[in-house]
Amino acid sequence: MVHPFSLPGVNYYGQGAIANLSDELKEHGASKVFLVSDSGVASAGLVEQVSDLVKANGLEVIQYLDVKPEPTVKDLETCLDVFNGNRCDLIIGLGGGSPLDVAKGVSVLATNEGSILDYAGVNLIPKQGIPKFLIPTTSGTGAEVTKNAIFTDEKEKLKKGVVSKYLLPDVAIVDSELTLSVPPAVTAATGMDALTHAIESYTSPKATIQTDLYALKAIELISASLRRAVSFGSDKEAREKMALGSVFAGISLANAGVGAVHACAYPLGGKFGTGHGVTNALLLPYIMEYNLIGDLQKFANIARAMGEVTEMLSLREQAELASKAVFSLSRDIGIPQKLSEFGVKKEDIPGLAEASVQVTRLMDNNPKKLTLEEVQECLYKALD
Ligand SMILES: [Fe+2]
Questions:
Q1: pTM flag (> 0.85)
Q2: What is the rounded distance in angstroms from the CA atom of residue 29 to the CA atom of residue 11?
Q3: Which residues have a beta carbon within 5 Å of ligand 1, which is an ion?
Q4: Which of 62, 92, 317, 318 has its CA 20 to 30 A from that of 8?
């Protein structure tokens, strides 16, 4: 059986990795750089740091710092208009998942006609975009190594996924020093998003020996360091492990995909404006309980990777420890435990379940085929 495996063109990992930006800019022969980020990243001083590096190479920088969390199609178009008015030849996305996704979107819309919604789905983008470098400042989305970008369709109030090899960056620079100032709540939500990527891709029907290597190591790294990164953010070792865990989870996700947790998170995010990471974090252990029987051995492996003691237990008992370990981690780092905390009501559940099963691209990639009734039942359990 043939398993395609994709990665960005060039990756740099480690504390201080940002120093490699200059060489890559020279290599790509850029003259004018479009830097996409947001106000939070700017106030942390990171926009200035990266802009200075670009300018030190004699290049001009146009900054776009208005990216909103969970960007809409309109947000992307606003950024594209600024790009089109400035004719830059390279894009840098700097920030969490939102600026990185907007940078990806602008890159492909610069060379392809129409709206990003025309390309929602898998492999629908006809042409390569303009070169893009992605530099994450959170450890979570893995957007710097995936071929996905997510935008909210305001009309349908639904998040739409665009999947294309042309969304992979030319260069990804993952420097954990850029994550040191991320506040605890964002560290918790993004870290749990990364854990969701690792667990969903590890148990995906498309998982391979190669993606398993990345996914299981990501689960180990994140479980061992997320509590510390949340409670003591300046711990460089914890931040470094989280950065690597997030990238490894992203690599696994890029190649094996995610499943029902992400499928259910999209309608919730679209209708209630709940953040991607925190929504996944809340749903993850509830859905793991349903998925358990899809692959007992893999769930047992997850429990061990998360530090659970599994000796003398039956395989099923070992597998059950996986969701318990996720509940415990999520409680420890202050993740909301019930959907009612997001303002979701009992009468919202049937519609949310219906919309979730319609995200077939992800539902079909779940280790257990979940029926509409099962999704409803699961969301009721997560409600209050
Ligand atoms: Fe995610």
A1: yes
A2: 18
A3: 193
A4: 62
For residues 149 and 104, the answer to whether their CB atoms sit within 8 Å is yes
Count of structural domains, the chain? 2
Give residue 265 CA to ligand 1 midpoint distance, Å: 9
Given 179, 200, 229, which residue is the final one in a domain?
Answer: 179
CA 155 – CA 368 distance, rounded (Å): 31
Q: CA torsion sign, 125 to 214 to 185 to 177?
A: negative
Containing structural domain, residue 28: 10-179
Domain check: are 305 and 161 in the same one?
no
Residue at which a domain ends, from 147, 179, 211: 179
How far does residue 273's CA lie from ligand 1's centre (Å)?
15
185 vs 16: CA distance, rounded Å: 24
Query: Residue 7 — very low, low, confident or very high, per pLDDT cuts 50/70/90?
Result: confident
Report the separation in Å between the CA atom of 194 and the middle of ligand 1, taken as the mean of its atom positions. 7
d(CA 324, CA 266): 24
Instruction: Specify burial of residue 209 (Cβ count, 10 A radius: 0-12, 13-18, 19+).
Output: exposed
Q: Beta-carbon neighbour count of residue 2 at 10 Å?
A: 3
Distance from C-alpha of 366 to C-alpha of 154, rounded to nearest angstrom: 27
**Same domain membership, residue 244 and residue 166:** no
Looking at the DSSP assignment, which residues form a beta bridge with residue 34?
62, 91
H/E stretch holding 11:
strand 10-13
Q: What is the pLDDT of residue 3?
A: 73
Element holding 149 (H helix, E strand): strand 148-153
pLDDT in tens, 201-241: 999 999 999 999 999 999 999 999 999 999 999 999 999 99
What spacing in Å lies between the alpha carbon of 60 and ligand 1's midpoint? 33
Query: How far does residue 262's CA lie from ligand 1's centre (Å)?
Result: 6
Q: What does the pLDDT look like over 39-53, one tens digit per residue?
A: 999 999 999 999 999
* Residues 238-293: tens digit of each pLDDT: 999 999 999 999 999 999 999 999 999 999 998 898 999 999 999 999 999 999 99
Same structural domain, 259 and 363: yes
CA of 198 to the centre of ligand 1 (A): 10
H or E segment and range at residue 320: helix 315-332
